[in-house]
């Protein structure tokens, strides 16, 4: 039975031809730039680099870059071919023409996709020719690469079309595409981090294998499929991709679902919504809070360090980070509201919802930064302490720093458990140590980047050499106090020196 | 030809069309008038298949318009806000339309170059003046040879000579090809000379739908000069409006002309003159009692 969507009528002239020509003309900067940069990146650079002549040098770099470069191309193309949805005049024009919505969607979507793929075909063929001239047969590899990049395009392109249909093709569409990519990356990374840090051997089997959620993020999908050198043949190394089958399957399934969802929504998208930012009322809140939380988290990650960089107390840092997150989420919510309302003056309308938490987050942040309650400097009284210990974590990833004459290796994790109740003097020393850290106002340490230069026999600034000092007090009243400080490395050494001396 | 039955349309709870019905005969010119926000453009977007009605039917030749390319192929539409493909010239738009409308008449396009001689067909339309863009839209629309032409505020921006020229071309199509024209305007003067039937919209409702001739025959304006005091005619005639300037009385009266004149003559006036009414005046006095902002229609 003939498909209703892809029936011959969909392509039958007149109509489809006019749309295809229109799409080719309106998207020419995208496909022209894609062709140019892809050609420059792969066949041209490889032909100059003589890379096929070398046995041990991977050819993966240009192909890996191409996988990333194609992502913005897909986004721009999808937004462009459905660009008319954001302009009322344009939507009225196209929807008044003698086409069905199905035909408009299928012709536009497929034309845009072909305009991405055709440059890649050209690049692939050119690369095969260049390789052949250099005596290397990479046809199989190029077919693999082409399959992978096509499927990746289906995913990203389908995802962006869905965003374009729901959120339009102007700033809101781009914003939500970026934000959802960001969310997906966070989910993938959190799961991967959990899997790595809480290994199955510790807590039993995870429900999903490591990397399972990769399919949520097109960026992860693109990054995690790599070229590997496989085996030596008479004409040189044969290359192939790892995880080829699973990546293609995931891309096709997710991309296909996205396009199907986009098609269904397009059919129900009201023309009168074309001038508006969000085409479906039910997605308004999704956009506003989705944008606010995503962009807020992004800003917190990017800009939070400037505020929390000098804070050594972990609890304080968490509170300040949380306040900053609230601050940036509210700020992002305002931006989202401006986008939806298409005007800047939205603050008055939201003054109560925004201003109170906004002010509260700023006040709490400032109180924490300036240690209004003295929490960072608080050191318990000796007589109230039952037991205490100090952990000093010297980052295992830092390598071979030598300090003074003590020759401490930075590759060790030092855990110092002292402080039995009977050891009164030792406990006194620890309390002094704590006071030493707080009195030195570790919050103010911004340089903290000290390594020992053997040539000059002195410390010099380099890298971020801070480390954690964790102090734990068990109090006599049954409570406990923990303090964690992120202090300069040399500070740790001073502490250790201090205890060694004891 | 065009049948609209009880169409309703709401935008986020705001009712833009409230049960509108209208009928347009084949080969006629139908004028759709109403103040701003009356729903003219909304009903036109239903007729062109852009909007889907919440309730009711929009039919052309008894077939629904929405999602029906066969019906939409019969229609050419000039919206109030023109749209042309990015940086497209008239020549490029002609090719675009030629690929879409199978009746597109390339010979007619060539012939009409003389009429629209000021337009450079190779220049991007977006760089032409507003009036020239409108001319280009008419040029392309006429060449599509549609059965139905729908015009939303069509001649804004055209100079008087070009207005006449454009209407002449449209009416020529009406006469020769029985093309049906539906034109919306808030300017009654514009429609007076061309429309066969007029429908007045207000607040999403059709207030009145009548042929122009029946409208013009039903309301008459008289100027009467009496010898002495003016008689009280309220019980004798359906007077819509009366105004006096010295001994000269001006009446707007609904009714049959002969009967009205007989009533006047029974009072032996010095002068009784019949003065032609404009479409504007008919609407004012027919609907003046209604609270529909009729004054907004009159520009």
The main sheet of chain A orders its strands as: 4-3-7-8
SSE pattern of chain B, N- to C-terminal:
EEEHEEHEHHHEHEHEEHEEEHEH
Order of helices and strands of chain A: HHHHHHHHHHEEHHHHEEHEEEEH
Number of helices of chain B: 10
The share of residues in helices of chain B is 25-40%
Radius of gyration of chain B: 23 Å
C-alpha Rg of chain A (nearest Å): 30 Å
Q: What is the terminal-to-terminal distance of chain B?
A: 31 Å
How far the N terminus sits from the C terminus of chain A, by CA atoms, comes to 88 Å
Shape of chain B: elongated
With strands numbered from the N-terminus, the spatial order across the biggest sheet of chain B is 6-7-8-3-9-10
> Helices and strands of chain B: which structural class?
alpha/beta
> CATH homologous superfamily name of the largest domain in chain B?
P-loop containing nucleotide triphosphate hydrolases
CATH hierarchy class name of the largest domain in chain B: Alpha Beta
Helix content of chain A: 55-70%
Which architecture name of the largest domain in chain B does CATH use?
A: 3-Layer(aba) Sandwich
Whole-number tally of structural domains of chain A: 3
The largest pleated sheet of chain A is described as:
4 strands, antiparallel
* Helix/strand class of chain A: alpha+beta
